[in-house]
Design brief:
Blueprint: H1 4-8, H2 11-23, E1 42-43, E2 47-48, E3 50-55, H3 68-76, E4 87-92, E5 95-99, E6 105-110, H4 111-114
Parallel strand pairs: 3-4
Antiparallel strand pairs: 1-2, 4-5, 5-6
The chain binds zinc ion (ZN).
Length: 118
Amino acid sequence: MASIEALLNNADIRAALRLAWRESHPGSSDGHEEGGPHPGCRAEGLEIIVSFHTHPNTGPDYVQEPSETDKRAVRDDPDLKAPHYSGELVISAALLYFVTPTGDVVELGETERILAQT
Ligand SMILES: [Zn+2]
């Protein structure tokens, strides 16, 4: 199983995540969640190794961290049981979260810093 840190060291994966984040229009009134496995996030052409979705709403009423539904979805999705699957990233304005296949949440750090170009 690939570690999430190793995946985030991959410039192509970071670029794909930055693009998805921009396309979800963070902070604007038409913010919407973007997600799904990206072709660049597959290994050996078939296996999904990481999935992600965004939490673009930045208002004070919105929960930024992964919701109970998010955790359950990762834990209970039969499509996410492959041995290569390492978990789901949740991209919010401030922090980057990671939901493990067992439904636990890890805070990876500041979104802007982790998804930075370099
Ligand atoms: Zn969510």
